[in-house]
Design brief:
Residues 157-244 form the HPr domain. This is Multiphosphoryl transfer protein. It is an enzyme of class 2 (transferase). This protein has 821 residues and is of the alpha/beta class. It has 6 domains: 6-140, Mannitol-specific EII, Chain A (3-Layer(aba) Sandwich), CATH 3.40.930.10; 158-239, HPr-like (Histidine-containing Protein, Chain: A); 267-288 and 411-508, Phosphohistidine domain (Glucose Oxidase, domain 1), CATH 3.50.30.10; 290-408, Orthogonal Bundle (Enzyme I, Chain A, domain 2), CATH 1.10.274; 536-651 and 658-681, TIM Barrel, CATH 3.20.20; 687-821, Alpha-Beta Barrel (TIM Barrel). 42% of the residues lie in helices and 17% in strands. The chain has 30 helices and 28 strands. The protein has an 8-stranded mixed beta sheet. It has an 8-stranded parallel beta barrel with strand order 21-22-23-24-25-26-27-28, surrounded by 6 helices. Helix 21 packs across helix 22. The radius of gyration is 29 Å and the shape is globular.
Length: 821
């Protein structure tokens, strides 16, 4: 454990400038034998790229990662300057805490500093005390965080106390859930953990509480809706505030894994396994772009408007990232960017930036300062999972900052196969990587609990983190072997190393290759029944990818992608061009185009959608189309015009009643006649229980049903499938959902129409078998799932699948169904 001794503290000092203050700290560290004196130049180098002023008169100078070899032992030195010294941009440092860290032993000191940052009285006391022991006690945790200089933390009017049950405490995911819930109530809501208090509507504020598993937290509220808010929060805590098992914040159980014993002949730089697998490729150093900005500005109102616009742009970019990662890796991994959006709306951070703008600072300076202060606080948290969120906050901060300053340098991404090396990668960096070129990832810092690590695993890219600053000195083109399983980067691997890695890589992909080799074979069961396996897609590139993956058509084209990330709706000609390109890519295979499905969690600002208390039960799906008939008719015209290029089926979303379907069919027929197009098969999505109940009547009006298992599950079980506390229970294999599907299929059979499915259950191997056994003849799945679903069906008989489905219908819950596998 790091200790701070009296000989590393100098009180009552003066300094002419920042360099002089740092030099005094360096002298203390050098005299104690903790650093090579050249580390002082590294500290000044850090000041050139980042202001280390933490806030409330405290600065934390530290060196660049590449110079950690100049540190003999991790240590800190404190220089107290009661009169203060200019630290740049108008900030004055009175307590200079210089950090020379080879590892993470200094994090406890940073954690203690976060308490000081929020307390003017304590900060002033440390900057003026003549007792060295008082400073040592405070920074090493020997003094209570809430001493006589600090007012005791208080609760609001009504309250309840709860024990945090989650294995990782109140980390990003449950905290995000609480913030989202709290923002829905007109009340001030506060969480208190010991002497620390957090605003329940501020994600950063909650993370700073550092509430681990078993921590006792008091939740209090006052205001018009305080009772309702407390009831909702009490229920949320009772549910555990946990998401599905593969949620973005799930970390390995127990302590972070350490590097395994690496048996390679080449020089090995050990790290921590973050994503398993192996890669053989040359090194490529990743460089992130720099952003410069002015410190001051003349017009605060203009600067505030610039910040507001930048926040909105960043929100839209994150929404696009969310959609992209959702399609590639599923909703759990995409939730990272929902948490990033929550950072953007953090009230305390926005207020801090606004206050600086009002003082005459530029929007860029104000935003960067507000973000940096809070990121530094998070990085000082003792819990690794919470500290890792600092990288996420800095990622969000940079995204906004790019809109406010001048970007120079530009991020360097590879154009040849490589092992990408970086100090660390943000989730945004990782999400944009081209898997065809980035064969492996190796970072100097970071950990296996970071969001970057989780996305790397989702993209199936081998990764090693925490390999140390030495990896940053590697020249581009250096031959390397990445051992993502053992946790290390092997430089200039020998022939034996290469043979061993290649053999491991071959074993790892053998099963995938078998499935890929047979991906074009139809999914015909052993007793001769065929099930079509088609793809869910959202753009032209995915249409081509679906065919390459063995897809036998498109079972769901989500047309929302045409409407997002723009300021106006697409024109008819734009839509015709896109639909035509997709039909050309399908080369005669059928494509089901779902008309615009917005509402609920799919909001498009320029469409001026109404603010609804419960948008999932509001104007969404076909209801939106019917109330925005001009947009609906334009889309239908484009679809019918494009239908000349290939077989098109049209599908209406979220149909709940026969009159909705009648209106949609009437409009579609009017548009078809205007265009002069041939008739197209018409279908609906079965997503709500009322559609199941009315399936006999609905079936007489259409050519097919497609069951949206995701929405049908949430409406049948009354559980939002993205809800932070209920999502793990919203299982599409619940017998209640399966019985609704069974009822739908039987109604369709009596009317002589076919039924498919386009939800997540269809891509689950067990789910695919049960759906086939229930009588579905088409399964529309994510592109990567196509080969494995087809292989699963080919390996079974329809007789066995029907028997399996029968047993599933008789189960009492989803767990019992899954136990049938």
């Amino acid at each position: 454990m790091l200790t701070l001794t009296n000989d590393l503290v100098a009180i009552g000092q003066t300094a002419t400038d920042k360099a002089d203050a740092i030099a005094q700290a360096v002298d203390l560290l050098t005299a104690a034998g903790k650093i090579d004196p050249r580390y002082g130049a590294s500290m000044m180098g850090r000041e050139q790229v980042a202001n280390t002023f933490l806030g409330n008169g405290i600065a934390i100078p530290h060196g660049l990662p590449k110079d950690r070899d100049l540190i003999h032992d991790t240590a800190i030195a404190v220089v107290q300057i009661p009169a203060g010294v200019d630290w740049g941009s108008g900030d004055r440092a009175r307590l200079v805490v210089a950090i020379a860290a080879r590892s993470d032993e200094h994090l406890a000191v940073l954690t203690n500093l976060t308490d000081v940052l929020g307390d003017d009285a304590v900060a002033d006391k440390l900057a003026t005390t003549t007792d060295v022991a008082e400073i040592v006690a405070r920074l090493t945790g020997q003094a209570p965080a809430n001493d006589t200089a600090t007012a005791p933390a208080t609760d609001l009017g009504d309250s309840f106390t709860v024990t945090i049950a989650g294995p990782h405490g109140l980390h990003a995911r449950p905290a995000t859930a609480l913030v989202t819930l709290a923002k829905g109530y007109d009340a001030d809501i506060r969480l208190r953990h010991g002497d620390k208090v957090g605003n329940a509507k501020s994600l950063i504020s909650l993370l700073r509480l550092g509430a681990d598993q078993g921590a006792e937290v008091t939740v209090s509220a006052e205001g018009p809706q305080a009772p309702e808010a407390l009831d909702a929060l009490r229920a949320a805590f009772a549910q555990g505030l946990e998401d599905e098992r593969d949620s973005v914040d799930d970390a390995p159980a127990g302590p972070a894994p350490v590097a395994a014993a690496l048996d390679w002949e080449g020089k090995t730089l050990p790290g921590i396994s973050s994503s398993p697998g192996y890669a053989l490729a040359p090194v490529f150093q990743f460089l992130r772009e720099d952003v410069s900005f002015a410190t001051d500005a003349d017009d605060p109102s203009t600067e505030q408007a610039r910040l507001d616009a930048a926040l909105q742009t960043a929100w839209r970019q994150l929404e696009a990232l969310y959609e992209d990662v959702w399609k590639k890796s599923g909703p759990a991994k995409a939730q990272i960017f929902r948490a990033h959006q929550e950072f953007l709306g953090d009230p305390e951070m926005i207020e801090a930036a606004a206050a600086l703008i009002a003082q005459g600072r530029s929007a860029g300076f104000a935003w960067n300062t507000a973000v940096s202060e809070r990121a530094d606080m998070l990085s000082g948290m003792p819990d690794a999972t919470l500290a890792a969120r600092a990288a996420d906050l800095r990622d969000v901060g940079l995204r906004v900052l790019k809109q406010l300053g001048e970007v120079t340098g530009g991020a360097r991404l590879p154009d040849q196969p490589c092992i990408l090396v970086a100090d660390d990668l943000t989730p945004s960096d990782t999400a944009q990587l081209d898997k065809a070129l980035v064969k492996g990832l190796c970072t100097a810092s970071g950990g296996p609990t970071s969001h970057t690590s989780i996305i790397a695993r989702a993209l199936d890219i081998p990764a090693v983190v925490g390999a140390g600053p030495a990896v940053l000195d590697l020249a581009n083109g250096t031959a390397a072997l990445l051992d993502g399983t053992g946790g290390g980067l092997v430089l200039d691997p020998t022939a034996a190393d290469t043979r061993h890695a290649e053999a491991a890589m071959n074993d790892l992909v053998a099963q995938r290759e078998t499935e890929a080799r047979d991906r074009f074979k139809p999914a015909i069961t052993t007793d001769g029944a065929r099930v079509e396996v088609v793809a869910n897609i959202s753009d032209v590139a995915e249409a081509t990818a679906a065919i390459d993956a063995g897809g036998e058509g498109v079972g769901l084209l989500r047309t929302e992608f045409l409407f997002v990330n723009r300021d106006h709706a697409p024109t008819e000609d734009e839509q015709v061009a896109i639909y035509s390109a997709m039909l050309d890519a399908m080369n005669g295979l059928p494509i089901i185009i779902r008309t615009l499905d917005v509402g609920g969690d799919k909001e498009i600002p320029y469409l001026r959608m109404p603010v609804e208390e419960n948008p999932f039960l509001g104007t969404r799906g076909i209801r939106f189309c019917l109330t925005h008939e001009a947009i609906f008719r334009t889309q239908l015209r484009a679809i019918f015009r494009a239908s000349a290029r290939g077989p098109v089926r049209i599908m209406f979303p979220m149909v709940a009643m026969t009159d909705e379907l009648d209106d949609a069919l009437r409009i579609a027929e009017e548009v078809r006649a205007e265009v002069g197009a041939e008739h197209a098969e018409m279908g609906i999505m079965i997503e709500v229980p009322s559609a199941v109940m009315m399936a006999p009547e609905l079936a007489r009006r259409v050519d097919f049903f497609s069951i949206g298992t995701n929405d049908l599950t949430q409406y049948a079980l009354a559980m939002d499938r993205m809800h932070p506390t209920l999502a793990r229970k919203a299982d599409g294999l619940h017998p209640a959902v399966l019985r609704l599907i069974d009822q739908t299929v039987k109604a369709a059979a009596r009317a002589g129409i076919w039924v498919g499915a386009c939800g997540g259950v269809a891509g689950d191997p067990l789910g695919a078998r049960i759906l086939a056994g229930l009588g579905l003849v088409e399964l529309s799945v994510s592109i990567p799932s196509i080969p494995s679903v087809k292989a699963e069906l080919r390996a079974t008989s329809m007789e066995d699948n029907r028997a399996l489905a029968g047993r599933a219908l008789g189960c009492a819950d989803a767990a019992a169904v899954r136990a049938l596998a």
